[in-house]
Every structure is written in C-alpha cells, then in structure tokens.
Amino acid sequence: xxxxxxxxxxxxxxxxxxxxxxxxxxxxxxxxxxxxxxxxxxxxxxxxxxxxxxxxxxxxxxxxxxxxxxxxxxxxxxxxxxxxxxxxxxxxxxxxxxxxxxxxxxxxxxxxxxxxxxxxxxxxxxxxxxxxxxxxxxxxxxxxxxxxxxxxxxxxxxxxxxxxxxxxxxxxxxxxxxxxxxxxxxxxxxxxxxxxxxxxxxxxxxxxxxxxxxxxxxxxxxxxxxxxxxxxx
Length: 233
What we know:
By secondary structure, the protein is an alpha/beta fold. It folds into 2 domains: 2-85, Elongation Factor Tu (Ef-tu), domain 3, CATH 2.40.30.10; 96-192, Nucleotide-binding domain of ferredoxin-NADP reductase (FNR) module (Rossmann fold, 3-Layer(aba) Sandwich). The protein has helices at residues 65-71, 106-118, 137-141, 173-182, 227-230; strands spanning 2-11, 14-21, 30-34, 44-52, 54-61, 78-85, 96-101, 124-130, 146-151, 166-170, 189-192, 208-211, 214-217, 224-226. It is globular.
C-alpha cells in the first residue's frame, strides 16, 4: 500500500496523482494500481510520470470504472501499487527528440527529466500533440531545449528530425506508426506500446503483441520497443 500525497484534476478527465514510494524507477516503466476489492477485476497499468525519492507521480486519464475510482481518492487515502514493471526507455548520450500524443505524454516527462540530468550539454527537443486541451506543457518547457505544441491538428506534420538524434515516442498507435515511418532509417526510434494488462509481469499473456521476431509481452518485453520490432511491414 502507498499513501496518496495529492490527486489533482488538471483538466476534465486528466488527473495527476502523487504517492509515497522509495525505490529504483526508470523512465518508461509502469505500476499496477488498485484501490478497490473485486470490481473491477483487474488493476490498472499506469506509467511513471515523475519520480523523486519518496514521491512517485502518475498522470492518468479517466476512461473507465477503475480510473474513475482512482480519481476520487484523496490525500491520506491508501492505494495499492505494484511495480515498477517493464523495460523502459534506454539511456542515450545522443541528442534526443521526443514525440507525444494525448495521455501518451505522461511517461515522456520523466524521460526528458532524466535525460537532461545525465546529459546537461545534450539537446532535447519535444513535440506534443493534443486533440483539444493541453496539459503539462510548462513542465516540458522548463526542461527541454525546444517544445513544439499542436492542439487540434496532427503533430507529426510538424516533425523534423535532425541527423544523429534518437527519437522516442508514446501516444496513439497511429501516431507512433507515423513517427516510425517518417524518421530516416539511420535515426534510432523507440516506441512505447500500450495494451490491456492483467498481471504486469508476463504471466497471463493478456498483453501479447506481434513483433518481427514473434509474439512478445508488452508488460515484460516492453513496453518500449525499437520501431523495427513492432512496425516492420
């Protein structure tokens, strides 16, 4: 169990929750959250938005019964968290280009933060796309060298990748597929996949995805994959 420190609504249906936690956490990893007994049946996988020793933060969207219950929790309430799970984004020393869409921006905050901590002289450019209302943009602007924002359009239409940049992306699969197809083959591209999960540790096979080398589990083998593993046709 973890104690909730804060659970704030940023815009309708988008919440940011911080809980007590101490441990090693990597960008791109996720936790399984639960604050109910039997209904709904499954815990909810939510990616790490930020982490400082003693405080773990999630940015999540209310899309069903489980996340609706999470949104009603107050400071001091308990929430069950299991994790961190999954293989996150790799550490890189090259310049970084980050592309996020909608709630897919959630794990990219911690990614950019850790990149700038380890590569203070490196350049990090961020592309953020939202359908209607943006959120969390100011935090990216405080860390990244450049932030390109698009609301209501198609963020990949504005994407320009520089030679030598490593690209990391999270968002709707259509967005990530577009990034994978647009970026020159000499630039490495990492994508963070999303899937329904029951256990988070690869035991239930509920989050299996097709890859170039056969079926893999998003929770255990991912959620971060090289583009050529999942967008290979």
